[in-house]
Amino acid sequence: VSFLAQTTTIMIMTRALVYVGFLSALVLLVACVCTRTYTVKSGDTCNSIASSQGVSVQTIYALNPSVNSQCTNLEIGQVLCLASSNNGGNDTLSTVYSIWHCGDDCAWTDKPDLSQSAWILDRGDGKPTSNLVIMSFMDPIALLNAQNGNGYTNGVPNGMIASVSYFTSRGIRVMFSIGGASWSDRFVSALNQNAAQFAKNAAMTAKKYDVGMEIDVEVDSSSYASQLGTFVDTYRTIIPYDSSANASSSTLLTIDMGSGTDYLATIASPARGWVSSNKLNWANAMVSDSPWNDINSATSSWQQHLSAGLPANRLVVSQYGSNTCSSYNSGGILQETVQWVQGKGVRGIAFWAAGSGGGEFVSNCRGIQQGSQALLK
Fold it and tell me: Does the pLDDT value for residue 232 go beyond 60?
């Protein structure tokens, strides 16, 4: 074979290899956009990186195929991917898998110990466990008055402000919940004082921190229905409803209802109207007084909202996190909840509650992680 023929063959093979390499890189780029990186330092191992950065070793391998199975080929200065924005196509929240997060004490005036929330960031395959974290709760009167000092900045708890990026940097959307059981009377008071200004302050907060807002007023009375309608309408004049794929998190506005229509009945009816008229993105059927013992008790309550006319794809049902942590096992209530949600076309599931305050708050939950893999894929 002549020298010219050999040279031509080598050139063709080289070009082919470059082209194949380019296509491989392009496929990886399309399939997975890295949202968090780490630069390898002297002495690093896969185990030490995983421990210090709050990810699993499996995630490092999954997102960095160049790292061998023994992790012996790390190089100083090498950039590793630790998180991907590809979350099964659910970044638009067409399917909701959310976690109410109470911080240390549900007040958030100080930044909580978020190291106990690492399980939310990574379910074991490089994807987040949830696609939405709802920080609970904001004091309605503090928000109305745009309070400064004593742990607040313009009515927003400093701990919430300091914690948003912990989740959003991993591709998890964030909402702030206003009210809650302890502050529901203050929610009604804020509505009665100035519902329009209350809504304006909430909308300005949403825009400033790019977070959604959740309405949680647990007072079963029709006395404030008109003012709550003013709040919703005013909010939407500032931040219109937007269900497009590139919608900002600040466009999210939701409401909490009872687990069924027999509790907070005065909320359920207008909530259905606001959802149907695209003033609210969806409504949450909250947890009951205590964890469900069986799936039939849970679904009989959730079904009440569907039977009353709430569209299935605008309903998010709820479970206690502590009741679903052990495992995603056959016949378990979490697996049965996921199957019911899928069968009914319901929007998703919310879990109460993550945090480091002990008691009912969970700081690690393998069951919810496994449920995420089943529902979000």
Answer: yes
Q: Give, for 137, the enclosing helix (H) or strand (E).
A: strand 132-138
Beta bridge partners of 348: 96, 316
Q: Which of 251-260, 285-294, 344-353 has the lowest mean pLDDT?
A: 285-294
Residue 326 is which amino acid?
S
Helical spans, DSSP H, in 54-183: 57-63, 118-121, 140-144, 158-168
CA distances from 235 to 38, 203, 253, 314 (A): 39, 6, 9, 19
Instruction: Indicate the DSSP class of residue 65.
Output: T
Alpha-carbon distances, residue 243 vs 92, 252, 278 (angstroms): 8, 9, 9
Judged by phi (left if over 0) then psi (alpha if -120 to 50, else beta), residue 127 lies in beta
Q: Which runs of consecutive H residues, i.e. helices, occur in the chain?
A: 3-31, 46-53, 57-63, 118-121, 140-144, 158-168, 184-209, 225-238, 265-276, 295-307, 333-344, 366-375
Residue 342 identity = Q
Q: 110-125, pLDDT tens digit by residue?
A: 999 898 899 999 999 8
Query: Cis omega (within 30 of 0) on the bond before 137?
Result: yes
Taking the whole predicted model, whether its pTM rises above 0.70 is answered as yes
Q: Hey, what amino acid is at 55?
A: V
Confidence of residue 319 (pLDDT cuts 50, 70, 90): very high
- Nearest residue to 360 via CA among 351, 349, 372: 351
Residue identified by tokens 């912990």 is 166
Predicted confidence at residue 65, as pLDDT, reads: 86
Give me the phi and psi of 98, to 5 degrees please: -115, 160
CA max distance for the chain:
95
Q: How many CB atoms lie within 10 A of CB 193?
A: 14
